[in-house]
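Z., the sequence and structure:
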Amino acid sequence: MTEFIHHIPALIIVIPLLWGFATPLIGRLSKKGMYAWVVTALAITEALTIAQIYLVLTQGTQVYVMGGATYNTTIPPDSGGIPVRIILTVDAFSAFMAFTAATVTLAGGIYSITSEEGTSGESMYYTLLLLMLSGMLGMVMTGDLFNFFVFLEINSLASAGLIAYRVGKGISVEAAFKYAIISSVGALIYLFGVGILYGEYDALNLAMVASRMQFTGLDKVVMALFTVALAMKAGSVPLHYWVPDAYGKAPGAISAILVTASQASLYALFRVCFSLFGLGSNTLTTGWFLISLGLLSMFVGVTMALIQTDIKRLMAYHAISQTGYMLLGVGVGLATLGTAAFSQYGLQAMEGGIFHIINHAMYKGLLFLTAGAVIYRLGTSDLNKMGGLAHNMKYTTVFFMIGALSIAGIPPFNGFASKLMIYESTYLFNPILSIIAIVVSVLTLASFVKVFHSAFMGPKLYDVKEVPKAMLVGMAILTSLIILFGLFPNIAIQYLVGPAAKALANQAAYISSVMGGA
């Protein structure tokens, strides 16, 4: 049992990876068997991420060396001290992100059983879905800068294939091509920065590089390269132009999972700002840079959403807008890092931004699933061609209302909990920031009132049925967490958000846990 527990970090990544490659063979033997195979893989991965959270909370940061029987703390974890290996470093923030990605993917996988039933290349769909999950999990759990690039590429290639899955007269393929180009450019920029650091410090392990960091002029260049590349992949304004096409043309379940894929890059942006560069950099300047990206993302995203008539493009722009809240909260935390203000309100701002990551994954994932349900029944994403769906699609209507109220920050749903933390803390930092965030929430509510009225209200225009049970189950999984975190936010803050924020803010503890000093 102890040996099994030791290998949990590796199993979380390996299970969806190996299951994915075996899926086409299972699909040839039995389609129902393939569905069971995929859901089993996702459920096991979900259970392991929960177990990993428990391990991190009780035992501290988990360091796992691929190919090594045990981790030898006397040998520096770089290629000069040991053979080149994949080193996984799982602290509370990594465990938090892994749980978020696994949960949304589980809901999306169950939803896909009926939403994608009968489409050509179905086994390939599930293979790519599992590879996409493996890539995301690797991104948030690796402790190596180069291996992050490898997992990023796995995630990007699988995502591009899934975006293009429904050809749609070539439109989906065009969206996937844009995504692939942007992903390649971002990955190359990131890789160039990794090369510079390797040339300077003769190491690729993040903690090792951080321990040797001198913050020279080259290091500042690398910080700029990393920030641009990862903000681009996270869908932040002004590098957001791929998001509406990719989210808008992907299948409903994939749009939901793409949200967590973008958040994996956002995780990396936060990780390099805190754990790699930390207090050695000008945290006030970097923090204000993140805050500026957040304000731009919030404002541009919500204003662009207001004028959309395509339900999924509208939701895609809101995904951009909500990313701004995460950048704002964590940016305030970074700007106050190392000062008395951090303990007064900076840590709370970080907790609000990190809490918003999982809340956004749940309610935005739910909203994309409801949009997929509407398109599944009507065959169109045009709001002008919808109406009266509440008469026949009662469950979908309720799920949409919960997601819409949550994204607008209306109590008692989870979006309110994280936004309130951001409002309170940013007001103490700069009242104008808090006011802007509240105004954006009001505009978000107005936008979703428009969607609700256009799609669900009015006389019955279509004689449609509710979507199949598997799709409802996928939506119900996310809805249950939205309600749970909304009614009992202290549970999430105590066991998920608080430890994640403290782990991210403490660069010394991260380096010490990996280098063997703790």
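Residues 282-487 form one domain. Strands lie at 62-65, 87-90.

Let me know what you think.
H.
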